[in-house]
Amino acid sequence: MGGDNAPRAVVEGACEAVRESDVSVMLVGDEDAIKDVLGNARSAIDRLEIVHTDQFVGMDEPAITPIRKKRRSSVRLCADLVHKGQAHGMVTAGNTGAAMVAAKMVMGMIEGVDRPALSMVVPSPKGRPTLVLDVGANVDSKPRYLRQFAVMGHSYAEQILGTKNPSIGLLSIGEEASKGSDLTREVFKIMESGSLNFAGNVEGGDVFAGTVDVIICDGFVGNVMLKACESLAELTIHHMREEISKSWLSKAGYLLARPAFERLRLRMDYSEHGGATLLGVNGGCFIGHGRSNAHAVKNAVLEAAAFCRTGLHQKMRERIAELHRFEEALVQSEEVG
Amino acid sequence: MGGDNAPRAVVEGACEAVRESDVSVMLVGDEDAIKDVLGNARSAIDRLEIVHTDQFVGMDEPAITPIRKKRRSSVRLCADLVHKGQAHGMVTAGNTGAAMVAAKMVMGMIEGVDRPALSMVVPSPKGRPTLVLDVGANVDSKPRYLRQFAVMGHSYAEQILGTKNPSIGLLSIGEEASKGSDLTREVFKIMESGSLNFAGNVEGGDVFAGTVDVIICDGFVGNVMLKACESLAELTIHHMREEISKSWLSKAGYLLARPAFERLRLRMDYSEHGGATLLGVNGGCFIGHGRSNAHAVKNAVLEAAAFCRTGLHQKMRERIAELHRFEEALVQSEEVG
Questions:
Q1: Burial class of residue B62 in the structure, from the number of CB atoms within 10 Å of its CB (0-12 exposed, 13-18 middle, 19+ buried)
Q2: Residue B273 — very low, low, confident or very high, per pLDDT cuts 50/70/90?
Q3: CB contact under 8 A, A260 and B246
Q4: CA-based nearest residue to B48, from B25, B30, B32, B29
Q5: Are residues B261 and A247, on separate chains, in Cβ contact within 8 Å?
Q6: Residue A44: what pLDDT?
Q7: Is residue A92 within 8 Å of A286, Cβ to Cβ?
Q8: What residues in B contact A239, CB-CB < 8 Å?
């Protein structure tokens, strides 16, 4: 029921995903509204099920709503279904904060993870995408959270993106270890002593340059940065339309080159990648853009299914446990020393 | 002597600025290298002077270099000239950190300003630009620094951009006062009690949307954000070239629409606006992009001249003094209360 185009885009996107793959989808929300969109399509698809509820969390309601006030809300029921093992993962285009809180509180965290992180895949010139996390789940992160983000990002890049020994960059200003904020200097130190493929500090200019496979940062800077980039892309399109519409010649030229621009849009639009994934919770949680259309929802469902099939959070749990053993050994060797 | 295209781009840009306006320029650097570029042009322009030095700060040298090790470096001499009143402002495309440190240490700070802030003008859909500060002079800012950035940004928007009663937004995640980091929540409180036109929190998505006239933030997030946006713009151009070159039809279309794309580039390219301005120091300090070409240098010189003509830092000094009187009064009234 979430997102600007719900329930139509969500229902249609889910149907497309079911038709194109062997995934099964439970549509959680108002049964009548869902049936309205489904029309006769439903009878044709047996891997589609409706879970009815009349409670929804609006885009402007506090993140805690599905826990405190609306325990029958669609986003809460999704988290419940995952927690009970009736679903492998949840996909939403609704209130991001509410989805994160529902997932964290209902599914619970992977043992050893202090905070879940919202991760997003962004394009690069080399075609090999970069995973950025955290893009908005946490502010004022402690150094150990970023260390855990690195482990989770490593697992994601390896298992989902298929990157061998993924390199990990720490988002900062200036490349040297001494540069950056109190937080990044501290994280640099602990990352250096770790077993991951740490590439040191990277700058904002590296985010879309494919410099590293995984970029770790506090959720405040990650969120502001990606939202600003999105607003720059929108402004560029806005100005481009204005400029092209100024003459018949440029309109004609644009029409000729249109297939190229359409391919460009597909390459640059990271909503194509199905939105953001919440890492660190016990189950899949995928948060699409509020403006997701049916196509974006379909992609989100297919990527969520692929994610759940890898059993990523089982692997993440093992990696996090390894990290803790490594750190304990380090502390003990220091104490002995 | 700074920047990727120095000294050619810097000297040529300065010449263009002198030809197109009544500004006088001192070229600070290696006399022979400068004369090589100037050729015979120099004799034709009497508002061009060379100040020779054989010392330069490289792009990778520490920011403190012009103070500690290279006291005859070109960037240091520029700051000296401004400090002695022989120049109104300095323009560089070189090492940003070194320029900031030289300006701060040699020119000194406006009384009442704790930290200078690097500010940058970014485009908006409405055509009225937005000033963002700090974009990289400070990390781990204290709340009162951001309050001072707001006062400096207000003065800049009013005097240089011609915006009446400029609105000021605090860069955060989430719009409500309760959202954001420890820093932004604290700044929100003190901004609310102030006399400026405070518009509350803004998000990354507002940066290129023209939501407010001035955006204040810590230099870590401002720097990472704008550099990421720049790298996204580069990636877009990279992919666009690739896609267009794939067919003759789209190549032809692109050629027809080329004037529109050229106008688009001019509207979006914020290096057109002459780069970043360091606010809070006693004199003008303008830092162009390291990749500045002659055209960008010319714009930087012309904007620097316009800036210096407004006597902005005198006005800023008055505003900062007002702010301090206001805060003292507030403290006293609280003590009396």
A1: middle
A2: low
A3: yes
A4: B25
A5: no
A6: 59
A7: yes
A8: 123, 125, 264, 267-268
Tally of helices (H runs) and strands (E runs) in chain A: 12, 10
Alpha carbon distance B275, B286 (integer Å): 7
Is A223 within 8 Å of B204 when comparing Cβ atoms? yes
Q: Are B137 and B117 in contact (CB under 8 A)?
A: yes
- Looking at residue A58, the DSSP 8-state letter turns out to be -
β-strand pairing of A48-52 with B48-52: unpaired
Token pair for residue A325?
């053993």
Do A9 and A275 meet the contact criterion of CB atoms below 8 Å apart? no
Instruction: Domains for chain A: give ranges and CATH numbers.
Output: 1-110+280-310 (3.40.718.10)
In chain B, what residues touch A230 (CB-CB under 8 Å)? 204-205
| Residues in chain B, overall count | 337
- The SS3 assignment for B323 reads helix
pLDDT the model gives residue B261: 81
Whole-angstrom Cα distance, residue A250 to residue A241?
10
End-to-end CA distance of chain A: 58
Residues of chain B positioned with their CB less than 8 A from the CB of A123:
235, 239
Cα B262 from Cα A326, distance rounded (Å)? 55
First and final C-alpha spacing in chain B: 58
Spatial contact of B260 and A257, defined as CB atoms under 8 Å apart: no
Tell me the pTM: 0.91
Rounded CA separation A159/B331 (Å)? 57
Rounded (to 5) percent helix, strand, coil in chain A: 50, 15, 35
Please state the length of chain A: 337
Residue with tokens 């998505």: B205
Give the HSE-up count for residue A88: Cα atoms under 13 Å, Cβ half-sphere. 17
Among the partner residues A182, A206, A238, nearest to B231 by beta-carbon distance: A206
Residue A220: pLDDT above 80?
Answer: yes
C-beta of residue A283 within 8 angstroms of C-beta of residue B304: no
Cβ distance of A243 and B267 shorter than 8 Å:
yes
Please list, in sequence order, all residues whose beta carbon lies within 8 angstroms of the beta carbon of residue B181, skipping any fewer than 6 positions away: A139, A140, A220, B172
ipTM: 0.90
Q: How many CB atoms lie within 10 A of CB B309?
A: 13
